[in-house]
Design goal:
alpha+beta; Creatine Amidinohydrolase, Chain A, domain 1; Creatine Amidinohydrolase; 2 domains; six-stranded mixed beta sheet; three-stranded antiparallel beta sheet; 19 strands
Length: 343
């Protein structure tokens, strides 16, 4: 059980107690969603979830560890006797830290960025199953809107069609607003789908993701509606080749930064490195952007790939005023290599 495993975190992070306020981390550990809750972890004292009156009955019924009603003085009581307490500095605001200091004045509040990172970075079998379901629905939605490509259809219409299809077929939401980009709009990596209408001989870029069982899908495909622009088609072949080169070397033990290095060296040889304006990829899970960061100069560049890591490979090349391409799949690290969720 994740909550039991998490009780070892405080000691591993050199604190006596760990306070978790991030709702996503609380969901990860408990399987329950709360708009406002606080989880206290201690190897000596166990776990305690503090919730308000809206959730108290449900939480007590569904959770096997201590659940208490939050309120003035409760956190201080639960921390009584603790000298060093960790909090998530990546989530808690400056005002939040000041409030914690007022609650427990004798405590040394210790900032720890993303304290659940070591647990969440490698997915278990249940998570992999959910991610595959999200990928399958995302791919089905992509095929659905591909069939709707016709002159005059707008980016926004296809984005809405994708969302309706996914929600109708079991998605609880989308990983991000669908990126549907026609022609010159495809040169913007984070284009917002607009009223732009499709014309003959334009590039079409779909960047899509559906959420299933709380886990995110993420993929990108490029299509050519009619005759492709020769420059853009060349960039597409290079992006696809770069993607395949990175995927070919990915396996347990390979440094994450090396994947990006292989792509950048290839683009440099082809004279297009300046057109690659973002990192190679990112982790995917409950959030669509999670550790690890797949980038040569990123914080995870020297972290070795490990079984259970799930991440994207998404090289892209962009020509302002002309168009752009990106080829993206989500992979899980398995023994001896990686598994593509989008084949």
């Amino acid at each position: 059980m994740r909550i039991e495993k998490s009780l070892a975190l405080p000691a591993s992070l050199s604190v006596e107690v760990l306070v978790i306020d991030n709702p996503i981390d609380i969901f990860y550990l408990t399987g329950q969603s709360f708009s406002l809750a606080r989880l206290i972890l201690s190897q000596k004292r166990g776990a305690c979830l503090l919730v308000d009156g809206r959730y108290i009955a449900k939480a007590k019924q569904s959770l096997s560890f201590e659940v208490a009603l939050s309120g003035k003085g409760v956190l201080g009581e639960k921390l009584h006797g603790a000298k060093k307490v960790g909090f998530d500095s990546a989530f808690t605001s400056v005002e939040g830290v000041e409030a914690l200091k007022k609650i427990a004045k004798d405590v040394v509040w210790t900032p720890i960025s993303n304290p659940l990172r070591s647990m969440r970075i490698c997915k278990d079998a249940t998570e992999i199953f959910a991610l595959k379901k999200a990928a399958a629905l995302t791919m089905a939605g992509c095929k659905k809107i591909f069939e709707s490509l016709k002159e005059g259809v707008s980016e926004a219409e296809l984005a809405w069609e994708f969302e309706v299809f996914c929600r109708t077929h079991g998605a609880s939401g989308l990983s991000f607003p669908p990126i549907i980009a026609f022609g010159e709009n495809s040169a913007f990596p984070h284009h917002r789908s607009s009223d732009t209408r499709l014309k003959k001989n334009q590039t079409v870029l779909f960047d899509l993701g559906a959420i299933v069982d709380h886990y995110c899908g993420d993929m990108t495909r490029v299509f050519f509606f009619g005759e492709p622009d020769a420059k853009i088609f060349k960039l597409y072949t290079l992006a696809k080749a770069a993607h395949d080169r990175a995927a070919a070397i990915a396996r347990p033990g390979v440094k994450i930064g090396d994947l990006d290095l292989v792509v950048r060296e290839f683009f440099s040889q082809e004279g297009v490195e300046a057109l690659f304006s973002h990192g190679l990829g990112h982790g995917v899970g409950i959030e669509v952007h999670e550790p690890p960061t797949v980038r040569l100069d990123g914080a995870d560049r020297d972290v070795p790939l490990a079984t259970g890591m799930v991440f994207t490979i998404e090289p892209g090349l962009y020509l302002p005023g002309v168009g752009g391409v990106r080829y993206e799949n989500t992979f899980a690290v398995i023994d001896g290599g990686i598994e593509n969720f989008y084949v």
